[in-house]
Design a protein that fits this description.
Elements: H1 6-14, H2 18-45, H3 54-75, H4 88-110, H5 115-136, H6 138-141, H7 146-158, H8 168-176, H9 184-191, H10 195-209, H11 219-222, H12 231-258, H13 271-281
Helix pairs in contact: 1-12, 2-3, 2-12, 3-4, 3-12, 4-10, 4-12
């Protein structure tokens, strides 16, 4: 996971002249691209496999999301030449999103836990999904029997040995589904990650995700945020790239622990197959004879 303290990395980068910083940036960008290419291979190698358990099903879904997220980050890492668009805030936001996706992946799928605990975690996921949808789409929620849905979730909850250890307050909050069902620090501890380094990067990136004051207060003094290449814009982007690469690398290793042959298995679809499917689905496929 994350072992590099962002402040320590920034101090090192501040010692470099612009040309040195550019070389460092390009090196980290290439390393990130290499990890993405490996991730794409692993993702496609684990596709098209019939699975009969939630653990592997959601691992496939979340890993796909992680790879797509990483590819978008890569597209926002510009070249060091005139007229390129620089936007660290967007890179930071997506890096935080990548971290959150991997936290879910680890908690639901990668972590080795008792079967009752894993089943309980999925029930907590269902409660969180239901609670989130009901709050975001209240009109839609009113169209189906809330009592019936809650009765089913409650029966599943109370039927799980792990969830029966929850005290009344924990049970009540979990069934509401309004909060993320895991504590970030606990997941990081089980990962063996450096909690302080992760937390510092996560909070820093969150300032840009939510347009906190740190994302715009010192734009002029720091000479950043105007969409052009500057020393600090580049240094901050390097920090995000380091974090994104570390997260993606951990996710790949986690996925390979569940799909051991994914890196060597022939994917069910070739690049040409994917392109043909997209073109057909979007109504752009050529019809023979026309």
């Amino acid at each position: 996971m994350i072992d590099d303290d962002p402040l320590i990395v920034l101090d090192r980068l501040n010692e470099l002249v612009p040309t040195q910083l550019t070389r460092v940036y390009l090196r980290y960008r290439q390393e990130f691209r290499n990890i993405i290419n490996r991730g794409k291979k692993v993702s496609r190698g684990s596709a098209g496999i019939f699975v009969n358990e939630n653990r592997l099903s959601y691992a496939s879904l979340l890993f796909t999301k992680i790879i797509v997220n990483a590819l978008t980050i890569e597209k926002l890492l510009p070249d060091c030449r005139p007229k390129e668009h620089w936007d660290f805030s967007s890179v930071a936001s997506l890096t935080r999103n990548l971290a959150e996706a991997y936290l879910w992946y680890y908690w639901l799928c990668q972590d080795e836990v008792d079967p009752d605990v894993r089943q309980g975690r999925f029930i907590l996921l269902y409660c969180h999904d239901h609670g989130s949808r009901a709050r975001i789409f209240p009109a839609e929620a009113a169209e189906y029997d809330q009592a019936e849905v809650m009765a089913d979730l409650t029966a599943r909850f109370d039927g799980n040995a792990y969830l029966r250890t929850f005290d009344p307050r924990q049970r009540r909050e979990a069934l509401k589904g309004h909060k993320t069902p895991f504590i970030q620090d606990e997941v990081l501890e089980r990962m063996g990650a450096d909690k302080e380094a992760f937390r510092l990067g996560y909070r820093f990136f969150s300032q840009h995700t939510h347009t906190g004051p740190m994302s715009f207060f010192r734009m002029i003094e720091h000479d950043r945020g105007a969409g052009v290449e500057t020393v600090l814009e580049k240094a901050y982007t390097i920090i995000a790239t380091i974090h994104a690469a570390a997260i993606l690398d951990s996710a790949i290793e986690g996925h390979l622990s569940l799909f051991q042959d994914a890196e060597t298995r022939t994917p069910p679809l070739t690049d040409a197959d994917v392109i043909r499917n997209v073109e057909r689905n979007q109504g752009r496929a050529r019809v023979r004879g026309t």
